[in-house]
């Protein structure tokens, strides 16, 4: 989704933390070595559960994972007892907009909001996302350079939230999905007009410049708008926007610096040109055909398809002022997207978990699991899309995505078997990130003395 919202402001963010409910702001710091008893462990290195396991956490990271029978827990050691629970890696959403709110759809807001609104939103949304069990996100589109600042504030421990892999504003053509369309020529809402908000570019050389500028200001990933979109005025989701040559330039510049590229692409031809240009993920992928599916398989491109939020867009979003033009687009695109997702899954395309949170309320991210299983994935496959595969896509596989020695102690627990009923992931009972407990409805951390 989003083209415009807001800039992050540290001083305002601080006020907002004070106003958060205690449960959101609270963190329980544990001693440096902690033993976690996992009754049922899905470590995401395979599709299997293992019973009666112990994870030894030292500081922020996992030191060891082994069957309980092989680990002597010393007398007096700190134990987090999740022996009645199902323990999984912290979840990863590869397509979020933490600056966005899902109750502000009227396009007039594009010229009413100041940048501070997005800062407030980001503080609250980051906390909600973490409480929902998502310990890492890739944020793929916000005003310059909200996501970079949010990443820093969370990494500093200033506010609670998931680890953030940050993009800058999506790079879009003039009049495209990322532009502010449909207003009179004199109506402007740009923070950096001389740089066209580090977003608009026409021709390969302008794309090169925007990619280099974004890297200069600290982004981890480049987001492109390959085709039109649903939640934008005056453009068609199926129409190609950035050309192959423009996308190839972006990919070459980004990959040269070790950064990945995500391409928003609904339209059939735009998907193929983005894949051919070498992007690392196709976002949405709604109108993909068999040739596009075959190309994604051949290139190893991830499909990051937001197949839950159709429900919200065609329900609540209409109440919140979504214009009829966008409702009509969603009605056409949403159904096809789910059918084509099923075809891509059946063909063996690599799938990652990305929801477009911000289009729907942050914290409801896990509602997408139901649809991923309904449209062809196994529960284990859907979980791995949000753990090991997601970590691969966001280039953080050395740190997150599985529960193994050396990785961050980012883990969640639920009180029923998600392989039997995937929807239990909508009710995460325990959240640890980097060895710190951020949520505990199980009482397990109370045993940690
Ligand atoms: Zn989006």
Characterization of this structure:
By secondary structure, this protein is an alpha/beta fold. Helix content is 31%, strand content 19%. The protein is built from 14 helices and 14 strands. It has helices at residues 10-19, 22-25, 116-131, 146-155, 204-216, 244-256, 268-277, 290-299, 310-313, 316-319, 324-347, 368-374, 379-385, 388-393, and strands at residues 33-41, 50-58, 61-67, 78-89, 91-96, 134-139, 163-166, 221-225, 260-265, 281-284, 302-304, 411-414, 430-433, 436-440. The protein has a seven-stranded mixed sheet. It has a four-stranded parallel sheet with strand order 8-9-10-11. Helix 7 packs parallel to helix 8. The longest helix is centred in the C-terminal third of the chain and has 24 residues, at 324-347. The radius of gyration is 21 Å and the shape is globular. The chain binds zinc ion. The site of zinc ion (ZN) has 6 residues, from loops.
The SSE string, one letter per element, is HHEEEEEHEHEHEHEHEHEHHHHHHEEE
| DSSP strand content | 15-25%
Show unreliable segments.
1-25
User: Which structural category do the helix and sheet elements fall into?
Assistant: alpha/beta
Overall pLDDT confidence: 91
Tally the helices: what do you get? 14
Indicate the multimeric state. Answer: single chain
Gyration radius, to the nearest Å? Answer: 21 Å
Q: What is the distance, rounded to the nearest whole angstrom, between the alpha carbons of the first and last residues? A: 45 Å
The set of bound ligands, ions and cofactors reads: zinc ion
Q: How many β-strand runs?
A: 14
Helix fraction, binned, reads 25-40%
Shape: globular
Strand order of the largest sheet: 3-2-1-4-12-13-14
**Largest sheet geometry:** 7 strands, mixed
């Amino acid at each position: 989704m989003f083209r415009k919202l807001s800039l992050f402001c540290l001083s305002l963010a601080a006020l907002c933390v004070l106003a958060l409910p205690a449960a959101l702001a609270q963190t329980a710091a544990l001693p440096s070595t902690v033993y976690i008893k996992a009754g049922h462990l899905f470590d995401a290195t395979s599709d299997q559960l293992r019973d009666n396991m112990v994870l030894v956490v030292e500081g922020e990271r996992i030191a060891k994972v082994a069957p309980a029978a092989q680990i002597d827990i010393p007398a007096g050691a700190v134990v987090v007892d999740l022996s009645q629970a199902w323990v999984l890696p912290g979840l990863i959403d590869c397509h979020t907009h933490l600056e966005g709110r899902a109750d502000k759809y009227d396009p007039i807001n594009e010229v009413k909001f100041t940048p501070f609104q997005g800062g407030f939103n980001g503080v609250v949304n980051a906390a909600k996302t973490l409480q929902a069990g998502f310990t890492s996100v890739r944020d793929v589109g916000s005003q310059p350079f909200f996501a970079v600042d949010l990443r820093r504030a969370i990494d500093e421990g200033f506010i609670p939230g998931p680890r953030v892999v940050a993009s800058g504003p999506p790079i879009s053509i003039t009049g495209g999905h990322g532009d502010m369309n449909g207003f009179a020529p004199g109506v402007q809402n740009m923070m950096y007009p001389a740089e066209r908000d580090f977003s608009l570019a026409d021709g390969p050389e302008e794309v090169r410049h925007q990619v280099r500028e974004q890297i200069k200001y600290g982004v981890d990933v480049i987001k492109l708008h390959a085709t039109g979109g649903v939640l934008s005025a005056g453009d068609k989701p199926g129409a190609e926007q950035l050309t192959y040559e423009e996308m190839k330039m972006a990919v070459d510049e980004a990959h040269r610096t070790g950064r990945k590229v995500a391409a928003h692409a609904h339209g059939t031809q735009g998907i193929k040109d983005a894949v051919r240009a070498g992007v690392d993920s196709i976002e949405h992928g709604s109108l993909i055909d068999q040739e596009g599916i075959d190309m994604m398989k051949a290139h190893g491109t991830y499909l990051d398809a937001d197949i839950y939020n159709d429900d919200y867009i065609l329900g609540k979003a209409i109440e919140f002022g979504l214009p009829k033009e966008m409702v009509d687009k969603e009605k056409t695109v949403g159904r096809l997207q789910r059918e084509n997702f099923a075809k891509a899954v059946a063909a063996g395309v690599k799938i990652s978990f990305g929801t477009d949170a911000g289009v729907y309320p942050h914290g409801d991210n896990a509602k997408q699991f139901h649809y991923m299983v309904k449209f062809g994935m196994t529960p284990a496959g859907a979980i791995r899309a949000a753990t090991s595969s997601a970590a691969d896509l966001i280039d953080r596989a050395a740190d997150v995505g599985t529960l193994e020695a050396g990785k961050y102690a980012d883990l969640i627990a639920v009180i029923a078997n998600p392989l039997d009923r995937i929807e239990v992931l909508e009710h995460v009972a325990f959240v640890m990130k980097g060895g710190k407990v951020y949520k505990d409805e199980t009482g397990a951390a109370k045993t940690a003395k």
